[in-house]
Amino acid sequence: QVQPVESGGGLVQAGGSLRLSCVASRSIFSISDVSWYRQVPGKQRELVAQITRDGTTNYVDSVRGRFTLSKDNAKNTVYLQMNSLEPEDTGVYYCKAEYRSFSRPVEYWGQGTQVTVSA
Q1: CA atoms of 46 and 101, how far apart (whole Å)
Q2: How far apart are CA 37 and CA 46, in angstroms?
Q3: Distance CA 83, CA 62 (A)
Q4: Average pLDDT of 80-94?
Q5: 117 and 87 Cβ atoms separated by less than 8 Å
Q6: Given this model, what pLDDT does residue 1 score?
Q7: Burial class (CB within 10 angstroms; exposed 0-12, middle 13-18, buried 19+) of 111
Q8: Which residue, among 52, 43, 40, 42, has the nearest Cα to 96 in the 3D structure?
Q9: pLDDT in tens, 27-81
Q10: Rounded to 5°, angle at Cα 95 from 90 and 96
Q11: Which is nearest to 32 in space by CA: 92, 82, 95?
């Protein structure tokens, strides 16, 4: 399986927590930057957070301090720990693994996992 597989979404009250997981094949995981995107109906998919293959993390302002990325190389898995969730965090969360091949980007997207935060 080349495409990443996400899991961990669900329904949670505002202020609660969820942990999303993104599992990729070993061949992809070891060379990829992994990003999490969020999409709500009628809007474009937006970047939420990224962890590079060397472990550098980046977050958009709206989630910084609440969301934390980590990776388990032995399990080929990236985790997105989401704390202090807000209704605005609701959406389908997609995992993307990306690397460059002959200077061209190669992307693999997961199928998405729904996160719903109730007020």
Answers
A1: 24
A2: 5
A3: 12
A4: 98
A5: yes
A6: 67
A7: exposed
A8: 52
A9: 888 889 999 999 999 999 999 999 999 999 999 999 999 999 999 999 999 999 9
A10: 135
A11: 95
Tokens 């989401």 belong to residue = 82
Average pLDDT over residues 82-97: 98
Place of tokens 């977050």: 59
Which own/partner contact pairs does 36-42 have at CB distance under 8 Å and 24+ positions apart? 36/69, 36/80, 36/93, 36/94, 36/95, 36/96, 37/93, 37/94, 37/95, 37/96, 38/89, 38/91, 38/92, 38/93, 38/94, 38/115, 39/91, 39/92, 39/94, 39/112, 40/90, 40/91, 40/92
What rounded mean pLDDT belongs to the chain? 95
Q: Does residue 109 contact residue 96 with C-beta atoms inside 8 Å?
A: yes
Cβ(50)–Cβ(43) under 8 Å?
no
Residue 22 token pair = 């993104």
Q: No. of H helices and E strands in the chain? A: 1, 11
